């Protein structure tokens, strides 16, 4: 597994407002969307392309286009939905699959409650989006499923990560074709499995609910 922390002043600026407890849901949603665009720019650096011949008004030339099979974008419900639009804006040809997963707030174990994805992902590049990588349980389970279905290149985009989650992913997904792209690696997890300083519960902040 490879880790890429996007070290950019615009990412740091937007993340700071995102973290601020005074930021309301509409602003949180807008910032999450803007951050995805910045992270996706890095995360899609190795997206597969193929050559294409075109004519400009001036001359014939050769360019590239996103290749087939199409990349698959998988948001992990609920909070990952806040990153979907930004991702498909950058990858217009992408197909979208869905994974519904929720973490038991006592045991911190991830449970899958919905799966809507192609059965066969052989040879596919997959971009998983979920704002928070905390213990890593959710993303590890999600990525295992994608690899079991044949995905040969998986990139996870997270707004924030905890060092504990990054270590768990490195341990559990070692040797696998997996990249994690994140806006920051925070200090630690607290006793409730929340990222510190973090931003609280991403799903609640996106959708205005209170856990
Ligand atoms: O790394 P982990 O310890 O597994 O935790 C991270 C997961 O927790 C959050 O989802 P949550 O379970 O709160 O579901 P929600 O998106 O429906 O709020 C978050 O969006 C991740 O999916
Ligand atoms: O800090 C955290 C940890 C898990 N899920 C969240 O939404 N926030
Ligand atoms: Mg939540």
TrEMBL record:
InterPro entries: PRTase-like, PRTase_dom, Upp_B, UPRT, UPRTase/APRTase. Pfam families: UPRTase. Keywords: Allosteric enzyme, Glycosyltransferase, GTP-binding, Magnesium, Nucleotide-binding, Transferase. Its cofactor is Mg(2+). Uracil binds at residues 195, 200-202. Catalyzes the conversion of uracil and 5-phospho-alpha-D-ribose 1-diphosphate (PRPP) to UMP and diphosphate. This is Uracil phosphoribosyltransferase. It comes from Actinacidiphila acididurans. The lineage of its organism: Bacteria, Bacillati, Actinomycetota, Actinomycetes, Kitasatosporales.
């Amino acid at each position: 597994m490879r880790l890429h922390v996007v070290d950019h002043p615009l990412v740091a600026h937007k993340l700071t407002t995102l973290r601020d407890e005074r930021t309301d849901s509409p602003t949180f949603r807008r910032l999450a969307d803007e951050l995805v665009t910045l992270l996706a720019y890095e995360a899609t650096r190795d997206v597969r392309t193929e050559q294409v011949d075109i004519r400009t008004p001036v001359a014939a030339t050769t360019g590239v286009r996103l290749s087939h099979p199409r990349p698959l974008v998988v948001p992990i419900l609920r909070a990952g939905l806040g990153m979907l639009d930004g991702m498909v804006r950058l990858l217009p040809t992408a197909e979208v699959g869905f994974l519904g997963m929720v973490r038991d707030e006592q045991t911190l174990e991830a449970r899958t409650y919905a799966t809507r994805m192609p059965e066969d992902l052989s040879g596919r590049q997959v971009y998983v989006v979920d704002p928070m990588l905390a213990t890593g349980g959710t993303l590890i389970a999600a990525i295992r499923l994608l690899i079991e279905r044949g995905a040969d290149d998986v990139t996870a985009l997270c707004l924030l990560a905890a060092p504990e989650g990054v270590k768990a992913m490195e341990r559990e997904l070692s040797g696998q074709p997996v990249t994690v792209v994140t806006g920051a690696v925070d200090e630690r997890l607290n006793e409730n499995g929340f990222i510190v300083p973090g931003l609280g519960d991403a799903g609640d902040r996106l959708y205005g609910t209170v856990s």
